[in-house]
Amino acid sequence: MSRNYSFRVPAGTSNLGAGFDALGLALEIYLRVRIELSSRMEVVALGVDAAEIPTTSNNLILRVANRVATLRNRELPPFRMTIANEIPLARGLGSSAAAIIAGITCYELVTQDRLTEAEIFRYAFEFETHPDNLSPALRGGLVAACQGADSEVFIANLSVAPGVKCVIVIPEFEISTEKARAVLPQTYSRKDAVYNLQRSALIIGALTTGNWPLVREAMNDRIHQPYRASLIPGFEEILALRTPGMYGLALSGAGPTIFALAEPAKADGVGWDITAVFEKYGVKALPHVVNIDTEGRVIGTL
């Protein structure tokens, strides 16, 4: 058995506007992990938000790995884990989902006990019950996902047409998923539910066929963004932007990161226009132009 392993898990953006808890997209921003079998357990955290990543037994990756081992009646051998993180924490970019998939991967590698996809999701659900977050981290690409009555996960992988760039603008403050969900109502009107159903179907059609003029309307939402606007300074003004080359925008996951789809040649300008609105409201932010990740979890690449 090898003593050294490495793998990466992509970040993700979920919802894509109207596809609340149903749609996700993997991005080429990664949680990279290297494992070396050792005489004792050790965690080293490097990269983005490294100071906020626990290096004790409370580390989410370790917690997941240990939980899977317990559920499968196995014992983890000690190992040194080096985390090279690129995914900002608590910003709506799937950092928790990536860590959960990373923890399951650690278990698989150090025990040489490879799991089926169904098993991976079953164990992941011990920590995160939203397949729209977990599926992009595992599979990559654009996914539509749901959970069946018996916790079975149903996933459709879709291909995004060429001719688009992803823009993410990351403000310098965090919003926990719990806080972002707490502001949502318990019930919705039929009118609002139908509004979102129509647009969640439309965004899939737009992205897979490259019908970019549909994207702006398809990313409109009445289920979560209006209620989360109060948590994000300038969000309503950002939604009203009409920057040339911007196809559409939305909250990334629960926020506060803004996710936009743009014409490749104008993607930088889209990012800076969104950043300017944040700065107008006293919030520092950084724009990034990123590609869609189509590989998902990759073992053997650091």
* Relative strand content: 25-35%
- Please tally the β strands and state the result: 11
Low-confidence stretches: none
What is the overall shape?
A: globular
Helix content: 25-40%
Rounded mean pLDDT is 96
First-residue to last-residue Cα separation: 19 Å
How many helix segments?
A: 10
What is the topological layout?
Elements: E1 4-14, E2 23-37, E3 42-47, H1 60-71, E4 79-85, H2 95-111, H3 117-124, H4 131-139, E5 142-147, E6 153-158, E7 165-171, H5 177-182, H6 190-209, H7 215-218, H8 225-228, H9 235-239, E8 246-251, E9 258-262, H10 267-280, E10 285-290, E11 298-299
Parallel strand pairs: 3-4
Antiparallel strand pairs: 1-2, 1-11, 2-4, 2-5, 5-6, 7-9, 7-10, 8-9
Helix pairs in contact: 1-2, 2-4
Can you give a write-up of this model?
Strands 1, 2, 3, 4, 5, 6 and 11 form a seven-stranded mixed β-sheet that branches. Strands 8-9-7-10 form a four-stranded antiparallel β-sheet. Helix content is 33%, strand content 25%. A hairpin with a 6-residue loop joins strand 8 (246-251) and strand 9 (258-262). The two termini are 19 Å apart. The model has no long low-confidence stretch (mean pLDDT 96). It is globular. The protein has ten helices and eleven strands. The chain has two domains: 4-159 and 292-299, Ribosomal Protein S5, domain 2, CATH 3.30.230; 165-290, GHMP kinase, C-terminal domain (Alpha-Beta Plaits, 2-Layer Sandwich).
Please sum up the structure shown.
This protein is of the alpha+beta class and 302 residues long.
List the defining traits of the structure above.
seven-stranded mixed β-sheet, four-stranded antiparallel β-sheet, alpha+beta, about 300 residues, globular, Ribosomal Protein S5, domain 2, Alpha-Beta Plaits, 2 domains
